[in-house]
Amino acid sequence: MAFDGLQDYAAGLEKRGELVTIDAPVDPELEITEVADRMVRAGGPALRFTAPRGSRYPVLINLFGTLARTAFALGVEDLNEIGRRIEEILRTQPPSSLLDKLRALPRLAEMASWAPRRVGRAPCQEVVEENPDLFELPALKCWPGDGGRFLTLPMVITRHPETGQRNVGMYRMQIYDGRTTGMHWHPHKVGAEHFRRGEALGRRLPVAVALGSDPAVIYAATAPLPEEFDELIFAGFLRRRAVELAQCRTVDLEVPADAEFVLEGYVEPGERRREGPFGDHTGYYSPIEEFPVFHLTALTRRTRPVYPATIVGRPPKEDCFLGKATERIFLPLLRAQLPEIVDLNLPVEGIFHNLALVRVAKRYPGQAFKVMHALWGLGQMMLTKIIVVVDEEVDVQNSSEVIWRVGNNIDPERDVCFVRGPVDILDHAARLPGFGSKMGVDATRKLPGEGFSRPWPEAIEMSPEVKARADVLLASLGLEKVG
Of 142, 151, 139, 138, which Cα lies nearest the Cα of 55? Predict the structure, then answer.
């Protein structure tokens, strides 16, 4: 199902008993973080703070705080359903005969319906603020060492200055004053490339920032899509319905019509300002650095908007569940390029770029190393610091089993490789910002062609027949849940 914006999603959560309203005054500086963090860790509900100190706008947080809630946000019972839809599309062959073409028409019509479309009147422009002030927003200061208050769930919209290709990304924005913010564009991000191209041409880059929308649109802004793929088309695929767009008032950009707030403005070439520190998703503070500056030219909003927020920090946090959604949704695309991959686990403790556990159907010598190097060459997987490859019978979603296999199956000198390349800009352990080393671990069983001449031992496992008899015995004693 598609939601008619963020508040429609909040109403859906409320019907499911997954939204709690807090009417007591709570401070956006640190206090909301502490309450929301406890809810995430406990698997608790989303929260609506109706009286944030210093602002008249309610705050919605913990919108994606469990796997079940994230699936509901994306309109499915199980996140794997979206992956299966992608698999079905990948299996579709180009139609060759007239009959094939006729059969393909419904699918082609469905794909066409994903493209965003412009509307005339939009909820996000019900009010145009005459004297906009960013400090009227209940933006959070999340952690004691943060350099200020930050927009933590903004959808930042830009276009390539030469090609016009749209990008929707999620980049934190530190509020400097009522009309300016930082724009935290990492070098690997598409928004940063748009800024670089505009700067090289001496052009001011128009920017629009949407706060709040259908959660499928919010998720799409975080998704690791190819640079040329429009995030709003992907959002249309997720919600099975086109995203409606509104033309901005002061910049030539379009924004989701159902947004709660829209900030319009620009980034000036050659301008930088110190941004940070910020308590980041690594669990550590990212340092003060120079970043481009966003200048506000207009602020529009709904008549009665709510302000969406999230917090990041030491896992688990809400972004962990968005990351697990990405793992499930994009697995078929990895398999399309590397068919030997059976499953993938990006553990939340590894904050998605520090550790990847990969299950493969191994058929030939050196295949585990081939998979590692191929993954390091694919999009955002290039930032993965450690890749561990195991055999197809290993459940990579069970970290205990993976650790057991790694401990037993490797000869460190033979089975560990090191490479150099780009790493996440937030990796404080790297030798240089954005550049360091990565490690691959081959924990598969070794073949004679890999220099292992002895028989590889079989793992101890009870026979299925004995297991079945034990099931019957334990059930007769009321102990069927044991083991």
Answer: 138
